[in-house]
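Collaborator request log, item 7. Partner lab (contact: R.S.) asked for a structural prediction of Ribonuclease H to inform their binding assays.
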Amino acid sequence: MSDSEAGGTPSVTIYTDGACRGNPGPGGWGSLLISGPHEKTLNGYEARTTNNRMELMAAIMALRELKRSCRVALWTDSEYLRRGITEWIHGWVKRGWKTAGRQPVKNAELWKELLEETHRHEIEWHWVKGHSGHPGNERADALANEAIDSHRQQT
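Returned to partner:
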């Protein structure tokens, strides 16, 4: 999933979102990956989770899908995700995965997975207001909710 620009590093735009019915509750994540004329959608479900975990999973799984190093513009409506990976994570790592208040970082195992995925790519993290009509964000939201709905219909 990625087109090269004149033989250089491929560029990919990713939109991610997480959803949860109850917090905790059944949750889903969705990702839309776009590279040139190519699009790929991903989504997944967890029976008992939180919205923040689903936001992290959407980003992890989207980045994991990229088979080689890419220039990525990743759009999320989660300030938790964007600020966590661009600001807070550096302190967490220095403090051995503790917050400034010396508490264990919530979702540390997912933050570690996300950090590992980011090492392979050049990523610009962008925030978009959720449910504001932004097409990429709306599609990612729909994918996250489809994951929940399809699983609930199976049970």
